[in-house]
Amino acid sequence: MIGDLITASVLASGIRLATPYLYAALGETFGQRSGVLNLGVEGVMLMGAFTSLWAVHEFTPAGATGYDAGALAMGVLVAILVGLIMGLATAVINVTLQAEQGISGIGIYLFGLGMSDLLFQKVFGGNVVTVNGFPKVYLPVLSDIPVLGEIFFRQNLLVYFAFALVPVTWFVLNKTTLGLKIRAVGQNPEAADAMGISVARVRYFTVTLGGVLASLAGASLSISLVNVFQQNMTAGQGFIAVALVYFGSWRARGVMFGALLFSLVNALQLQVRTKGIDVPDEYAAMAPYVLTIIALVFASQRIDQPAALTKPFERGE
Amino acid sequence: MSTSSDERKLLPTGHERIDHLEMRGIVKRFPGVLAVDHVDFDVRAGEVHALLGENGAGKSTLMKILYGLYQANEGEIYLNRRKVTIKSPSDAIALGIGMIHQHFMLVPSLTVAENVALGLKSSREPLLDLDVVSARIEQLARTYGLQVDPSRPVWQLAVGERQRVEIIKALYRGAALLILDEPTAVLTPQEVDDLFATLRQMVQDGHALIFISHKLHEVLAISQRITVLRDGRVVGSVPTAQATKAELARMMVGREVLLTYDVPPVEPGPVRLKISGLRASSDRGTEALRGIDLEVRAGEILGLAGVSGNGQRELAEVIFGLRPATAGSVLLDGQDITGKSPAELNRLGMSYIPEERMLDGVIRDFTVAENLMLQEHAQRPYSYHIFLNPRAIAQRCANLIRNFNIRTPNQETPIKSLSGGNIQKLVLARELAREPSVLIAAQPTRGVDIGATEYIHQRLLEQRARGTATLLISEDLDEILALADRIAVIYEGEIVGVVDRAQAQVETLGLMMAGVRHETAAG
Amino acid sequence: RAQEKIRVAVVMPSTKSDLAFSQSIVDALLAIQEERGEDAFEFVYSENMFVVEDAATALRDYASQGYDLVIAHGSQYGSSLADIAPDFPDTAFAWGTTVDTFRDQGITNVYAYEARSEQGAFVQGVMAAMLTKSKVIGIIGPIETGDAKLYVDGFKAGVLWQDPEIEVLVNYIQSFSDLALAAAAADAMLAENADILTGTAQMVPGAVNKAKEAGALWFGTQANQTSLAPEIVVSSQVYDWTVALNPIIEDVLAGEIEGEAYSLTLENEGLRIEFNEDFELAEEVKATAEEVIQAIIDGTISFEIDEEGVLTVVEAEAEAE
Amino acid sequence: MPPNLFHSPRLDRAIDALMPLIAVLLALLVGGLMIVLMNANPITAYRGLWDGAFGSKNAVADTLVKATPLLLVGIGICISFRGGVVNIGGEGQMIAGGLVAVAIGLGYKDADPTLVIIACLVGSFVAGAVWGGIAGVLKAYFNVNEILSTIMLNQIATFGMMYLVRSEFIDPRQKGAAAPIPETERLPRQFDLPRIGGALDDLYRWLGLSGEGGTQWGTTLLHNGIIIALVLAVLVYVLLWRTTVGYRIRAVGKNPRASRYAGIPVRRYMVLSLVLSGGLAGLAGGIQLLGVRHRMNAEGGAIAFTGNAGFNGIVAALFGGLHPLGTIPASILFGALLVGGNKLQRTVQVPSALITALIGLVIVFVVGSDIFVRRRSRRRVTVSVAEATEAAEVRASP
Ligand SMILES: Nc1ncnc2c1ncn2[C@@H]1O[C@H](COP(=O)(O)OP(=O)(O)OP(=O)(O)O)[C@@H](O)[C@H]1O
Ligand SMILES: Nc1ncnc2c1ncn2[C@@H]1O[C@H](COP(=O)(O)OP(=O)(O)OP(=O)(O)O)[C@@H](O)[C@H]1O
Ligand SMILES: [Mg+2]
Ligand SMILES: [Mg+2]
User: Fold this and answer.
1) Shortest Cα distance from B79 to chain A (angstroms)?
2) Closest Cβ–Cβ partner in D147, D314, D355 for A103
């Protein structure tokens, strides 16, 4: 019974659903590892979602039927650019101006929520536009593996890239001098400072990177998952992404497990109802949220929250 | 690293030596405090220049200015007669200045090697080269006798080891001038000897050292020159050869200081605290206490000597209900109190002065008054039902501040801007004012100036006279020998022996602390 | 006390260009303005009034600014309207989508309008049943109430009426805005090899694209969704609120506010099935569709909803026996 | 040296107080540009904003009504943040409160109104407290981070509400309807929170101001929820700084370890912080229901009922310096911004998105400006010290 619920296609769609969470949450992980909490992810996602869609729409040659590689490249490029700007702004507010990170995040969220919609109405008169987003790429050989092939290796580039980011994140954080600085700054900025490291510069980097990834998360929605833009289309995913960073206790792998758990359960609950199994829709919709909490209750807890999280740094003066 | 070809001027670390560094007319103001007041200070290659002063005298501040952590309001710094400006630690590091901070500047979650590599250029940027770093660490360790395991995470290290990591960090960066701010405050006698060996080695190599300590005998043992600060001003600078403890003490405190006390005999009363077969595990899950048996009588001070990390902290925490006992029991006046909550134990008249006072003893962001009320706030007359009674509280705090002469602008000052010595006094005041029947004091005078130390010792003896049963946990043998009626030595979670002070000699204690059992005095 | 110029204000939950519920009313007002001219017909709007409290404030404010007709375009605004209307007896209010004019509460200046969207849905359902090859059809809705429920039930009824063998997959995803979730729901249905999808509310564009990728067909509702995917949209049920608004406006101009309820039906052409020209639809299908429409218009096919909200198809022939 | 005339502490404090307002003005300036880009006239727009917020008695009333839940959630946030826990669960807690209130109200239609109203408010507090308490227990005893759990619990509450309102709680009148509206019955009118406009008018009359400024307060929607909120704000202040409980909450928030050493049951106080702040959010829900909405409706999800007060309350509290009394003006300012923003849309017909973005800007500018206040105050002390010492030196030298 449960067997014919968990089909390859359900798992595949769960993996697709996980991509925006992965981008956003990995970005947030960098920020938090260096001691900066950014609740504004959702806003940046929306900005990225719109601008990338705009770029793809803009650069797709008129009358093109299929997707246009150049346009898609532009879409990603623009998303990165916008993420860069939003990220830098966030850094100025949280690092230089040492703003209370709880609120500044909400401010950035509201700004992005409004701004993305505003641009949408200004540029497209608010009319829903669809684009030809990233096409599925069947990885040679791998995609022919029975079942697994369909689940993992028949996704589009942005999906592959999101999962590729997991080991990359782990590597950067644990195997590079930069990663060492990031971890130190998040755990004990005073010590890092005393070793001649510029706490501010490190945090500027991580927060900006977080912005870029959040923006890509938006793009992965608008030009890869659904290929349209609508106001508030992220529907709270940015906040879930932040929660997932805590779920993964600041480790790339943990974050990925969180994103997968949440998204697979989501895909599964949709399947349950598509199958017409009789549970109230609302309860089914609750499942991912409930299970995420329960999973964390039973997960072996090795919490090492960055000691300086949300604490602005200023040399004793 | 220097490009100077003149070999004679180079240190083993390859860095150019600092022949002379001078600070002139340094002034530093903090909100409400004039921390450093027109201070002149200098140090030369191949010497140890000691800096003495009461808590809050301005030692750390002066040094933080030299290391670029604070900017002076006035004054200049000259390196080899050349004027330099030090805007940040990286400037200082570049000039060959290193600093061992009073409060360790290490990242607990990182390994030793990572802590050392932090901020250094890697040989294969952007990747880490921890293997290279580890190799170099071991090399330095050999040259200066600083044993550490580069791969251990710092949170697993004992304070002594952390101290070494700090020194290695400085040497690794080729520090030609090394500032040591109270490096011995947390070290055992053995560790101090090791440290001094290292320092002498460095002096020979031509390093310049600045050494801060509250322990006069250390200063006399290691330094060539001594400068004394009081209230941010230099009260004198003398060659060590011509200095005496008593004179230095007078310079620091501005009055005569008792350096040894006569301990009036007190007839020990009934057994207050009885610990039998106590076992417990450490934060790392290893067994920290392996069957402890101890008795403390009313009107007695039982000194617990031992190298730090042998279970002292765990013992105190188990007794005070902060850590579960895996076996054994603790009796207070015959009543079993094993596993009771700190709240209950407070009520039963037990009192605990924790070792990590900044972390466990006080709330940095709370005011002096709020910190003084941590236990009492819920009792009459300080509160009725749930409502606090500000007048009564102010009353009490005023008294405590007066009686224990805690140096603070007023009751509403956040204690984080008090000097550590004063913070320590505050904790002591809070605990002793409750006239506890059992007192557990862990390192009560660590990092505290001699004036305050004398003062605290007097208080402990007063309590003893009052009939308090005191468990004095200390790594400072002088302190224990000065105060304790009996001395128990702990090693790897076991009591290796208990001796009366009468028969106690430093040598035997030293052996016991190294784990050698003491048959004759199996208490 | 008749007048010739009329000022209308509308308050709506989502953006005026959501290609769905809110847009449908704005389109209607624009059409009316087109027809009557700028100076005879002026209208203003408040969009994105998700927060009912804010919507209430807006309604009250418009009324006190002396707008002649104040439209509360959202079923969640009802209770606020019931509180506000009595304070402005000379102002006409309209509330959609519902049939409730608060007569029972002695309120006379509230008009109500609704769309019998099950009618068009039924027609499209019939077409879907004829077009499906896999015999599997999927319907995506936001939450199981109101207009959405009506559409979904109608569509399903249409399919089964045409061919009881067909498997109809229904999924209310519990969100009006989560396009990704709508897309995933579509994925699930396509995986069950559904070859025709439909859906209602703002989040459906997410599903439309999935249908496009999989080459499945799409039926739209609330507004003409052909622009979303010209190659797969068969037809859309379009709401034309002018049918309800015009009589209300006439009343207001005539100065005799009655507070009646209007329904958009196929009969009064408030509901229209707009076919996608670019999609070549088999003649017989189109023919059947037209027949069914006719049948619904002259009542030989009608719909009943019982206490439990279950929709049943009633056929006149059956009654004749 | 002569006393420095240009360095008056009063002036300094005035400037500090003005700093947030200056920030708001800057934000509005930037917003003005955006408005121009949307080819509307910023002057008219901002006049609209002002009129909508304070322009008339009705406007003021709307602003205060809007500020009420912000204030209640906000003072709750003061407690939780002071207690060292981050409560992002205001939305869910408000919904829990609203649901219980509506359940009680509908359950006892014929009971004595005063009793029922009190029961509803108490019930809503308890409901919110439970919902917050769950996060508290999860944090204290299962160390599940509260940011995660509260975010999740918001969604769970929303879905739960949607289910109940659509099934169990649905208004019988909707049962038969072709297109049933997912809403509960409206609470009997005698359960509406008493309007206080009338009382205000009496006050005006008593002061001989009757008839001033046209419209009377009596016709406004101002209900006594604002009074409840204001009273509670004062009580929370007392709780935090005048009672042992508050002292312990703050101690645990600042340093759990030291608190534990001092014998404070840290975990229990963690839970308590979340219980209290959850309860206040729940009460906000109850008051929102009895004072404004009178029924629950599933359409539009959580925000339709909460108006985002669960989040905005956090902003209000932090604007108020996490001080219950500071939160009062902060909530009113924020409420004014929200109410005025909608009016702005009505006046110049700019997309609502612009207002959302504008509010975002205001928040960012205000938090960004805070550092200058802190810097100034620190410099001030140092300066005065410097003067003091100089003075001392002067005295010292003969
Ligand atoms: N960052 C700071 N802000 C405010 N006051 C400070 C700061 N640092 C030090 N002080 C104050 O300046 C004075 C000197 O402090 P300093 O640390 O130099 O004393 P110290 O000699 O190191 O004392 P100790 O022997 O306890 O280390 C003290 O009164 C201290 O409270
Ligand atoms: N940024 C700061 N703000 C306020 N006070 C400070 C600050 N930095 C240090 N202090 C206080 O100034 C005092 C001197 O600083 P320092 O680092 O020398 O510690 P200390 O006084 O020697 O304390 P301890 O004796 O416990 O080591 C400390 O007690 C510390 O509390
Ligand atoms: Mg010091
Ligand atoms: Mg000290």
Assistant:
1) 20
2) D314
